Amino acid sequence: MYLVIYLGLVHHAEQTMAASLRTVGEGHAQHPDVLFTCQALAKMSDEHVERLTPIVERYGEQRHGADVREPERLHADGLAEVRSGPVGLLRDLQDLHVLGTLTQTTWTVVHQAAQGLRDDELIELCEHASGQNSRQLSWLNTRMKAAAPQPLIVGG
Amino acid sequence: MTDRIADIWGPRTPHAKGTVWPARVDQYLEDGVGEDQVEKWVPSACLLCSNGCGCDIAVKDGRMVGIRGRAGDVVNHGRLGPKGLYGSTAWSRSKDRLTRPMIRENGVLVECDWDTAMNRIVEVSKRLKPLEHAFYTSGQLFLEEYYTLAVIGKAGIGTPHMDGNTRLCTATAAAALKESFGADGQPGSYTDIEHCDAIFLYGHNMAETQTVLWSRILDRTRAGDPPVLVCVDPRRTKVAEEAERTGGVHLAPRVGTNLALMNGLTRELFKNGWVDEKWVAEHTLGVDDLRAIVESYTPEHVAEICGVDAAEVRRAAEIFGTSGNVLSTVLQGFYQSHQATASAVAVNNLHLLRGLIGRPGSGILQMNGQPTAQNNRECGADGDLPGFRNWDNEEHVKQLAELWKVDPLTIPHWAPPTHAMQIFSYVEEGSIGLLWISATNPAVSLPESARIRRILAGEQCFVIVQDLFLTETARLADVVLPAAGWGEKTGTFTNVNRTVHLSEKAVEPPGEARSDLEIFLGYAAAMDFRNSAGEPLIPWRTPEEAFDAWRAASRGRPADYTGLSYEKLRGAGIPWPVNDAAPDGTDRLYADFVFPTATGECETYGHDLLTGATVTEQEHRALRADGRAFLKGADYTPAHEPVSEEYPLLYTTGRTVYQFHTRTKTGRAESLRRAAPDMWVELSPSDAEHLGIVEGDFVRVESPRGALEAQARVGRVMPGAVFAPFHYGTPGLPGEAGRQANELTMTVWDPVSKQPYFKTAACRVRKVRDGSSPAPAPTTAASAPARPGGVPETAGGAPTVSRAVPLPSYPNDPALAGGR
């Protein structure tokens, strides 16, 4: 059963998402909406991690294994530092979007397994977390569209 | 003879529920001018708050010398407030009016002629790309001026960088209406006051901000069958006193916690069965999500967050839940505070849960802060598209492209409109090279003043300021254009409850000053903007032609002006929509419970109230709203700058009854200036005692961003909070010391409406030195001292006249036969 691998993946992905959102928010604090919204979105990921922890314990988390190289390569490193300038903000938001998409698709496949295993607690969490991921992705998309035209057309 | 400084609301004319508000004409003529000396009375409407009172301007020897209310006007039934009476005309002859254009030469502003100034503007403008242009306007221009500028910016240049100071006052009102009902447009009417059983005032110190509307409420609360009032305000205002007098409640939530309170009130409706389930099922979407969001907000939990009494939360909810008809009004206490749009939407939710909308007495007034803010929203000189069209709807953009005969891609709908704070950020970083500011004073009115001054003074951007006076902002400009003001030009404007007034030119502007319309038309001509047929993009030359062009743009949209004309408006103000279906105008919207939420009709697809993320067209279409209103909620989150050991007090800003904005006009009227001559700050008695501060002491108030010094009023603000009026600029009028409330405020805004938060900073206060007199704060309203006595009563306004007149006919008044 590879579900444990994917539980580890999504656990890690949400932790990475939370940390990266905070990095981007604080790194672009001159945009107060970026700072405060990233903090709010990071809290959503914190909550997913918190609710996932007992489930991971129940199944036994397995992040590594000789026969599961493929999922391991899907781990994204997250953003340890931010880029500067207006295009920098745009690129950082795009990176967050990539991370968010990875997180959401991981929840999607975990959700399938959870249904097959009739694990009501996990099903409920998958639906909730995926919904919150959508809110994160919607905001990132909205903010990118706001940030893009000025540097792309006027910058440089 | 009435002193309207001492007697702000004038004599009472109480009347029974369901009857027409009596008429009374208020009049003020300047010292020495007799009524028989007035040569003509020119019809207009007052510009000194958002109420939009119909008035006549008195003219003598080519000068504006006074004002009187129009008895037949649906808005004010003849009344005027102290600002309108004393402040409407004095500024016009002020010696420091701008009369010639100025340009900056070797760092100094020098006078020049119009050609020189306009050539310099055009030379810069032609050199720049569309996205290097920004326009920052006002809530003070006329409809014709906004619409002309909207066409220049959106079809001539093609820039998304257009906004107004309406972002500071009315953006949340518009956003909340769009989120709930699909489009902007005030659902209620002032006539709801005569028919309601309860009135809720949310963050709305109406007694000071709209004195004539408050008179209208007092004439009901002082009658034999008064409505019950509920007031939500951190200060013990006159509204709060009246709420308790009528058996209602004054709730003073901790600054920044409005949404927690609203969620608590909403939960009580669900828990007590005060929800009209059938109506909600037929006419709304989202009730289950809303119920789940508010589930945890018990009165006890709310009491803990907000610092209010749980029993009073229950009592307020009971008044809302059990009164026959309820009127709600909302203003800056919600709009400029934390989680603004979510809190204002929560007011809409309460009405929708009970179906209290669309009938006399049950209305919502998401108020405006300024007299013509509504027109900026309608015409699109701010971030909106003209006619409440939707940026994300290609069909709506195509309608405008066909009307203006331009390529749809010229209209910058591929970028979300840039809100004011973002415009200033682009100016700061150097990617906007031309900023044109009209009729507003951001150096005083925007948050974090030091930053705004630095941005405006920088070399990186060419700044044009168009105004009546050399304001704090104009002093930092590269070109200053002298504008004609109210009474010196013709145009229309629309108030909170959608009433359109025609304001006619009464006198000539001074010197070479020109109307804002003439200035914009001059720029358009010099830039030679053309449509795709090669014709001039803007063919109109006069205000009336501009109005007719706007009528065509409004056709078929919620703010439909097609049935209006200058001729028709010469009689009295008329509320829109005015069209074939409603030739005499419309007193209230949504009488049929059909809301403009259909995907092809709505002004926005909506937002996530917590984050501001936009809903996509596809998502909206899937909801199949089709005329149903949205119930939307959000969780309470703590404000962005909590109090700390270093900054232990909450800081909030606001207005006083005698001044408007940054005092450009009211500071130049002697009666008003003397009534509130200089800056002060208000502390609660317990905080003052703890800090060793007594009435009149000079104190220093500091936030992480800046400081001000002023005399302290030991007043009626809630413990833990400090209140500062925002009117007083740096360096202020000649001879005044500089003190400015916005030195302390934060650069932060609402995720949906993008309205800056002026009411959620943390601060600290210490005494600087003893004062030799009480603080210069008025005693007549919310700034009154906590302990009466020892502070002289505010009085001494010039004499005014008030006279009762026979009741005229008001065409749309529901208390009269034939009212709609």
CATH superfamily membership of chain A? Ferritin, core subunit, four-helix bundle
| CATH fold-level topology of chain A | Ferritin
Largest sheet: spatial strand order of chain B: 7-6-18-17-16-8-9
Q: Rg of chain B from C-alpha positions?
A: 25 Å
Low-confidence spans of chain B = none
Instruction: Work out the strand percent of chain A.
Output: under 5%
Number of helices of chain A: 6
Whole-Å distance between the termini of chain A?
52 Å
Mean model confidence by pLDDT of chain B: 96
Which structural category do the helix and sheet elements of chain A fall into?
mainly alpha
Q: How many structural domains are formed by the residues of chain A?
A: 1
Total of helices of chain B: 26
* SS elements, strand count of chain B: 29
Structural summary, described in words:
The complex is a heterodimer of chains A (156) and B (820). Chain A has 156 residues and is mainly alpha-helical. Chain A contains six helices and no strands. The mean pLDDT of chain A is 91. In chain B, 28% of the residues lie in helices and 17% in strands. In chain B, the strands form six sheets. Chain B has a seven-stranded mixed beta sheet with strand order 7-6-18-17-16-8-9, sandwiched between helices. Chain B has a six-stranded antiparallel beta sheet with strand order 1-29-2-5-4-3. A six-stranded mixed beta sheet of chain B has the order 24-26-25-28-23-27. The model of chain B has no long low-confidence stretch (mean pLDDT 96). In chain B, helix 2 (114-127) crosses helix 21 (516-527) and helix 9 (258-271) packs across helix 13. Chain B is globular. With 820 residues, chain B is of the alpha/beta class. Chain B contains 26 helices and 29 strands.
